Amino acid sequence: MRKYSLVILGLVLSVSSEARPVSYPGGWVSMVQYRPDVYQAHAHYSPTARYSWGYMGIQSTHTQTSFHGVQFHYLAKRWNRPNSQANVYAMTAAGGQSTSRARYDLASIHGVSMDWENRRYFTRYTARVHTHDGEAQHAGRVGIAPYIGDYGDLHTWLMLQVEAMGQDTAIVPVIRWFRSMHLVELGVHPNGGLLFNWMMVL
């Protein structure tokens, strides 16, 4: 019985983390993200449970730049407990970044992500550096599930995210729903702009 409980817990946790970058062997993850000044699209494949690779596209309306490249994620460490899980991921992406349709420069993105969660609480920290302009991004998130659903139910999380990019800092309340292999998030930025994330695991 405990063996099946761990399998169900693993499936629930694997979907509940936002855009967990490495899924099960042979799994595909696709994701779209919308923020007031940034649009992102990701699609990656996990040959094993340790790493994944795929496409990353980022369009910034604030800086009028776009990035398209190949991304690679690596699961550096995982702690599995009977009722919780923690992970450390490293990522890198390499491709081209443009400020106009006519010119592309080589660019890369490097980052690390750490998370811990059980069925009630969630925490995560992410840091990334864009080598093309040296811009660093940091984001931390904490969340709580107002109820504990069974496997297959609609799950809800209430979260608070703190973002820092350059001199700008924002606190964003987020609500998350997930069921089966789909995850949707809605949030509101301080300037009134919306945050929307959608992820699907195949």
List the keywords.
Porin; 12 strands; 1 helix; 202 residues; disordered N terminus; 7% helix; twelve-stranded antiparallel β-barrel; mainly beta
In short:
The protein has 202 residues and is mainly β.
Task: Present the secondary structure layout.
Layout: H1 2-16, E1 27-34, E2 38-46, E3 51-60, E4 65-81, E5 84-100, E6 103-118, E7 121-130, E8 135-144, E9 155-165, E10 168-179, E11 182-188, E12 194-201
Antiparallel strand pairs: 1-2, 1-12, 2-3, 3-4, 4-5, 5-6, 6-7, 7-8, 8-9, 9-10, 10-11, 11-12
Describe, in plain words, how this protein is organized in 3D.
This protein has 202 residues and is mainly β. It has a single domain, classed as Porin, CATH 2.40.160. Helix content is 7%, strand content 67%. A 12-stranded antiparallel β-barrel has the order 1-2-3-4-5-6-7-8-9-10-11-12. Strand 1 (27-34) and strand 2 (38-46) form a beta hairpin.
Mean pLDDT: 86
Distance between the termini: 27 Å
Proportion of residues in helical segments? under 10%
**How many separate domains make up the residues?**
1
Q: Note the beta-strand portion.
A: over 45%
